[in-house]
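To whoever is covering the structure queue this week,

Two jobs came back overnight. Logging them here so there's a record in the thread.

Job A:
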Amino acid sequence: MAKAWLLDGVARKDGNAELQRRFNKDLYPALGKTSVSSVSEHDIRALIRAVLSRGAHRQAISFFADLTQMFSWARKRQPWWALLVEGDPTELVDISPLIPADYEAERSRILSSAELLELHNRFQHMTADYHALPAGQKYEGIRPLKKETQLALWISLGTLCRIGELLQAEWKNVDLEQQTWFLPSENVKGSRGKKQDHHVFLSPFALHFFQELKTLTGDSQWCFPNKQDDGHVDVKVVSKQVGDRQARFKNRKALSRRRNDDTLVLADGQNGDWTPHDLRRTGATMLQALGVSLDVIDRCQNHVLAGSRVRRHYLHHDYAEEKKRTWNLLGDRLSAVLFSTYEHPPTESMMSFPDYAATGSLPPP
């Protein structure tokens, strides 16, 4: 039944790769040889509890939603509807009591200015310390986060983009001279029929990191190419690298060929772990504090705005100038936070950013 659903009943953007991985890990080992008619609500709870035992609360909730969707699909089709004559076992499961009471369904983590500066300095010091090691000691030394990953984090923060959207970027859509980046609708998050193209104006802050990235991957079609250079890296690779370096917050054994340390824990862990997506929330919150309207912030984040179909049909102002000033304002604020004490190696020149004064509100058009 599961294989039939993956083939004909669901079509995720990744070609169902994540579903297949999840089923291979959590469904098939437990129930792969169990007949559909024998699956009970207790089996479903056991599946969810097994995922929760790893501390993967969000994955458990998503897994349950996948199972619910699969059984709902099967109930309408032969031969499974006859096997489910006694009912859908997922309908008898309330997942709420299984989830820890302190679990936050929606993350609210925001990195403070001090944490952003700490992260920036951590990258600088780890890179310098590693390069200073003698050749024979580098294997045992603490390898810094890959440079492309560091740049991805700063670009995500400076553009408010989703990290997965950034990792799919192609150089043909990045114009460094015009300071623009185009995100086609097929690369952005959203439901079918509601996804929309996104045009980002690159502030001097974001432009700097794109320029640095160009020196590393500019010969590829992709801004973040995979090892074979026949596509982009996996869209979860940056999140995994950041998470692996905050091991104290992971309820798991060390994974093979993965880092397992605390080198990216910020503020001594007092504020919990952080993820690349938290940078997007951090940037948006900075703009709100600077007096930018929520409407413009939403557009900078490429949110599909609510409203009547009639209003969306007739109102087509693209807010290009407002968004451009907003990204500049964010870049100016981030520049002040990160680069007031920025130290370049002697071979590099100091960065120079135009002065977009952060006065607490957007400059006049």
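Job B:
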Amino acid sequence: MPRIWITLVGCLTLVLTAACSVIAPIQSYINSTSTAPQPSILASPSPGGGITPISEPSATPTEIPPTPGETPLPITVAAPQATPLPSPLPPIPCPPDRCTYPGSLFLTRPIAPPGNDSLDVTYRFGSTQSGMRDPHHGVEFLNGFGTPVLAAADGTVVVAGTDLDPTSPRGAWPITFYGPYMNFYGNLVVIEHTVPEALFQAFPDMPRPLYTLYGHLSEIDVQVGQQVTAGEQIGKVGQAGIATGSHLHFEVRLGENTYQASRNPELYLSPHLDANGQPMGAVAGRFLDSFQNFLELDSIVLQHLPQGPDGPSDFQVTVLTYEEKGLIGQPPWLESFAVGDLPAGWYRITFPMGGLRQDLLQVLPGQVTMMTFR
């Protein structure tokens, strides 16, 4: 099976007198509140199996290929200053099978140190813990009873109370609740947020607004209609509702405040920093058959390659596609699996699809790498 090297680069179209060139530098970590995320076009494999990236504009454009065995570093090449460049045209869309997006990991983590601000990887979004639990519509932060819970972004509180009463109008059918049934979350808070304009520019069809849900609380410190800011305390960790232990259940919902509108929080939560102090990244992907139908896979292995594509792996993460069909292929990412908090660098992805397949991908600091496998 040939190995595909993938380099993540950004898109910038320049109009020149004689020809039109697409120039793409590797993007550095971009703060979502100040810079619009622009999807990056990834370089295509060359006939020899390597990568042919495109450099940023300079007096003499040159190719800057990655060195096998090394992790490519962000590259910045100064643009010529003598002649002002014309206004850039709209960025060229990424190819459908490989792209990277900065700026989407913007939500503040709802637990702050000394609390545990890492999610429980044994019960990721869309998983069932080997069939022992319902498909997860959020993520969990395991913390002691009474740990402060924080707002993930600025917004307006739209729910602050219990989920004992239905959300559907009296006498209307079907009867609906905030969860799949009454008293699922117990005490909960839901905050409505404005989708950052930078993120909406990258995904014009992204459902709005965005909601964050905080469930199983032992205490609620806000009221409906209250304006809150990112990092403000809104309650405390508990085990209300169906919780079997003390933890925070955290959800992201898009377009409407319903259980069916849940999205994977790992594609929105701000990443931790790695051992070198740079933000980690995330990977999302999907597997399609020849008829463009989503395939469900029970083993997707990501192996980190700290010494580059030809080096050994120092750790691996194993996931599977979402186990509830209704969670697969939802906008804006249209993904069937996702993993956050991955150190930047090269990864080998292995999965069963017409036999055992392997590919290479690269994670950039603070960015989401989106892949499609056919």
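Note for Job B: Confidence is low (pLDDT under 50) at residues 1-38, 41-92.

Please reply-all if you pick these up so we don't duplicate work.
Q.
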